[in-house]
Amino acid sequence: MLNTSTDRAIAVKDLKKSYGKLKVLDGIDFEVHRGEILALLGPNGAGKTTIVRILSTLLSQDEGTATVNGFDVRREPGAVRSSIGLTGQYAAVDEYLTGRENLEMIGLLYRLGEQETKNRSQKLLERLDLVEPSNRRVKTYSGGMRRRIDLAMSLIASPSILFLDEPTTGLDPHSRITMWEIIKGLAATNVTVLLTTQYMEEADRLADKIIVIDKGSVIAQGTPTELKASIGPDHLEIIVKDDDDFLNTLKLFETDVLQNDPKRRSLSIITKNGTADLKKVLSMLEESKIIIDSLSLHRPTLDDVFLALTGHSTSVEAERQTNASTTL
Amino acid sequence: MTTLAIESNIQTQQRKPKILWYVSDAWIMTQRSVRHITRSMDQLMSVAMFPIMFMLLNRYVLGGAIDTGDISYANYLFAGIFVQTLAFGANYTTINLAVDLQQGIVDRFRSLPMNPSALLVGHITADLIRNAISGVIIILAGLLVGFRPTAGLIEWLYVIGLALIFSLAISCLSAILGLVVKSLEAAQWTGFVVIFPLTFISSAFVPTQTMPTVLRAFAENQPLTHVMNAMRTWLVGTPSDNSAWIALAWCLGIIIISLPIAAWLFRVRGK
Ligand SMILES: Nc1ncnc2c1ncn2[C@@H]1O[C@H](COP(=O)(O)OP(=O)(O)OP(=O)(O)O)[C@@H](O)[C@H]1O
Ligand SMILES: [Mg+2]
């Protein structure tokens, strides 16, 4: 069943899709190798879900070709479906069934057979920490549990390619990190993962390759390191109490200063390893007896990516800045 | 959480002819839909309460005022209430489908290596099972309020057979409605807009001879009246005509035409 003649798990060529006059996808090209994690990064309405739906045979494209596991999504949808697992943007679970019933139903529909389905369900429930609520109706699940049972349903047939549409949206920080670990664990077993996200940080933590899309076009692609380098480095912002201290601080960091603003008595310095640098900077400032107002760590955000790449900003409400330190 | 080791990336696809897979998928979907019915208060009520209510209200509120000639009103009314209950029960297919389509679960079914129309078959079969139960309840309720059938075994088999085929036909039509409506509210409305007039402008509660000409013409020629008349003949021995054949033709016609349309609508929706 599996097509192993190529190591490209997904290949997308010049994909186009319009709804009436609205061009939702305007010629998308990319490839994903086996075992890779690819992140599609983009703001609301960029076309991420549309791409996922086309690749999982739920939607047909207007133009262009897409192959998944070597099968053409339009000509061989059945073979594609046998190769993939899909966790959509909104939980695809049956609220009236229990978690276990949901899982077993999908297992049977994947034609795994009764016994195999039962075994796999139990294992997945254990691994995703869902044994306790497994006999409750999904209606009563929290958002995080729902996400996990949804993921379990996509995993039950051990697909070689997994689509995850915004897998962590709406999860608390702890659940988000758990989900990241699960995804990384999957990729370690040679599952190819295509995920979508609005968060630079998420793409950074997980992806081997990031594709940035905006208004249906790919506007940048590369490894997280490559992308971030193109956007600008992490930086520390220091704001000091008085003008003398400001000048002293400028002198202290000299070449590392990215930009400065005498009026606000603030300056930014480039940092390669965030929190470690934060400590170093703090002790340097202390040694020089400079009194600071605030010191904070800034990472490039999706907004920065967009500002840098398109000149317009995104509408992502959750600006995910890591403020490592507050007023001292 | 440790890493998720996946044992193998090869799916254990068992070998079976396509048609058997289809039957097995449809059966899994039927079980799912039946669980929905048993787990939703609203649906359980519809199975038992509504038919009994209809029966009691019509029997005792209207019953005294209606002249049904030689046979008692309880005997006349039964076939009407029976068919009305089946029609409303089968119409639940509209709502159940609309609910499904609003949730992500349909997308998941579509991304599985099964024929997604098994979902349709599942809903329709589950509603047939629901209607079988409703049918038994309504017969018991009828017996309690004075319904005295004269039917023998053969006639009862005819009644059951036509009831199932009729229920199936309404379910198939309802499936189309469920696939074209855009919202749940609309799905709920279709029951009133389509089923109510059909059941009231029929021979269900009053003999059609008493109606104004236009209504009478409609009532006497629409399928529900034929189904009711056929059942009335079998159950309580009213004079027989060719209603049974016309009813059967209507029902089979509806099924043969609407099932492929529903399957097609389901396939293209959202593509
Ligand atoms: N059925 C449809 N009819 C008309 N327009 C649609 C339809 N589906 C999607 N669109 C439009 O296509 C564009 C891309 O939608 P898509 O869902 O792919 O975005 P997205 O990147 O997933 O966004 P989000 O982050 O909000 O999930 C949007 O402008 C959306 O309004
Ligand atoms: Mg989306």
Structure notes:
The complex is a heterodimer of chains A (328) and B (271). By secondary structure, chain A is of the alpha/beta class. Chain A has helices at residues 48-55, 77-83, 99-109, 114-127, 143-155, 173-188, 200-206, 224-231, 243-253, 274-287, 302-310, and strands spanning 8-19, 22-33, 37-41, 63-68, 71-72, 84-87, 161-165, 192-197, 209-214, 217-222, 234-240, 257-261, 266-271, 292-298. Chain A contains eleven helices and 14 strands. A six-stranded mixed β-sheet of chain A has the order 6-7-8-3-9-10, sandwiched between helices. The N and C termini of chain A lie far apart (62 Å). Chain B has one domain. Chain B has helices spanning 18-39, 41-62, 73-102, 105-110, 117-144, 153-180, 184-200, 213-221, 223-236, 243-268. In chain B, helix 3 runs parallel beside helix 6. The radius of gyration of chain B is 21 Å and the shape is elongated. The two termini of chain B are 38 Å apart. The structure holds adenosine-5'-triphosphate and magnesium ion.
Offer a concise description of the structure.
Chain A is α/β, with parallel strands linked by helices and 328 residues long.
Index terms:
heterodimer, A: 328 residues, alpha/beta, six-stranded mixed sheet, 36% helix, globular, disordered N terminus, disordered C terminus, B: 271 residues, mainly alpha, 10 helices, elongated, binds adenosine-5'-triphosphate, binds magnesium ion
Distance between the termini of chain A: 62 Å
Question: Into how many domains do the coordinates of chain B divide?
Answer: 1
Uncertain residue ranges of chain A: 1-5, 315-328
Provide the β-strand percentage band of chain A. Answer: 25-35%
Which molecules are bound in this entry?
adenosine-5'-triphosphate, magnesium ion
Number of helices, counting only DSSP H or I runs of 4 residues or more of chain B: 10
Q: SS-based structural class of chain A?
A: alpha/beta
Radius of gyration of chain B: 21 Å
Number of helices of chain A: 11
What's the overall average pLDDT of chain B, rounded?
86
Rg over C-alpha atoms of chain A, rounded to the nearest angstrom: 23 Å
Largest interface: A-B, 51 and 38 residues
Average pLDDT level of chain A: 86
Shape of chain B: elongated
Helical fraction of chain B equals: over 70%
Main sheet of chain B?
A: none
User: What is the overall silhouette of chain A?
Assistant: globular
